[in-house]
From TrEMBL, chain A:
Species assigned in the record: Mesorhizobium mediterraneum
Protein's name according to its UniProt entry: Ammonium transporter
Alphabetical list of Gene3D superfamilies matching this protein: Ammonium transporter AmtB like domains (1.10.3430.10)
Record's bilayer topology term: Multi-pass membrane protein
Residue ranges of domain Ammonium transporter AmtB-like in the record: 18-444
Annotated localization: Membrane
Primary location group: membrane
Keywords: Membrane, Transmembrane, Transmembrane helix
GO molecular function terms attached to this record: ammonium channel activity
From TrEMBL, chain B:
The keyword Membrane is annotated on this UniProt entry: yes
Membrane-spanning residues: 20-40
Organism domain of life: Bacteria
Keywords: Membrane, Transmembrane, Transmembrane helix
Native source species: Mesorhizobium mediterraneum
Annotated protein name in UniProt: Uncharacterized protein
Amino acid sequence: MEGNLNALTTIFTEFYYWVTIVMMFLIHVGFCMYEVGVSRRRNHLKTLMKNAMAIPLVTITFYFFGWWIYFGFPNGPGIAGGLVTAPFAEPWNPLMGTHLSGVNPGETGVTPTDAALWHRLNGVFWGAFLLFSITTASIISGSIIERARSGAFWIVAVLVGSVLWILDASWGWHPQGWMVKLWGYHDAYASGVVHAIAGGAALAFLIVLGPRIGKFRPDGTARDIPPHNVWLVTIGLFLIFTGFWGFYAACNIPLISPATIAGQITGETWTATNIYLAPTTLSAITFNFLMSLSGGMLAGYIVSKGDPFWTFSMGLCGVISTSAGNDLYHPIQALLIGAIIPTICYKLHYFVERRFKIDDAVGAVAVHGYGGFLGVVVAGFMLWGQPSSPYEGFAHINPLGNFAGAVLMFVLGFVPTFVVCKILNSMNLLRVPAKVELEGVDFALNHAFEASVREVGTAEKAMIK
Amino acid sequence: MSTNGMESWAVDLKDVGAIYPFQGSEVVMVIIGLVFWIGWHVLQTRHESAEIEADMAADRTGEETRKAIDRH
């Protein structure tokens, strides 16, 4: 690292992403609390482990191939060019290990200055993207509780977390992604890239999986299966809100000079940018995050008549539905979009449940899938005509490009997940048998626990004099 | 045409101010925001009053209330 300013910028950026990773872990603490709170007592342990084990599985697969997909596929390949070489993301490359940021032997076209910046950041950048990956997989987990086999979910978690979402990120959430270049796709904080694709995958899983026993009455109307612990659910959602701050910060490049952005931006003013390298500020996303969260919670309180589960969930949906444009919206625009879209999603959740007998235990398809989809569509209108990128020749943001992008995100989550779930179902690997579902998926674990309690209790009592 | 007036990022950022869409309509947006806020209080008060009325009409014998007190 030559020069104090370069060194400070590099170390600041490295530390910035590292902090976002720590904050984003709270999303997963929240997801686990939330899912366990929603599940009934006889399903707690398996529900917890189903979600928690997505963390190591997506981590190792994202190391093996997810990171490489992001850098290899921005052109499609075959849509805007070929496969891009990305040696720093190959799992056998020295940069995927402990490294002090010098130029690697044999590495062509990399100057010591480039190496000092990028080589140093590779690990924290990988970690931040990984946390998005785990989030995308976790979103599916809550909707399928109490009857899905854990092993089936883990296969889908790897598919969605380490392949599908990172592929769509390469296309639509990358400075050189073909969707940005050709369609003007804009989705700064991942309404579509993370949430719509996860919602599409969750819907596909739910269609093949079917509802929980007892969810629907003989006449086809839905029964309510209340959370066993509303406190746990709402604290879980609070933690997800908290972790979302890290998610938003990680979607930005914190500090960059105009010269680094291909010289397109003139002058000497350094700035934060979104993932497309277009200028924004942390202040912008702070205004808009809080206003959209508030819009969602206020609307949620009214439409659900004060129901804690939906009030908190609609707050989350408020953020998700404005995330596509929260780098550029006015705070009152974020407030209103964050109130209107979650209200539509709430109504859609119950319509789909009633009409198609879809048992989504946590409303993930509505909050993430419909919320993310509609958020991308609305951003296309709100930001119409604005530059999608600082690079020359890119399409401007437009309603058609964002609509097509939203459809692509949802479908990219839905179709492969549907096919994989069908295959797993044909092998009896998707759902637990009805007897096990009624006993509770923790049946054997609970019996072992009770036997241990009895045995140690008996031994202790025998020692009382 | 662009909703925030920006057609390109090939500019000097020291010359750029607000970049949100529909600049010039801030007062209208604030009015809509205030209506949303006041409307929320009106709707919330109606819902809460209806809920309290339902609670008043419930448990004529006091049996459920005694159980609730016992549960702490």
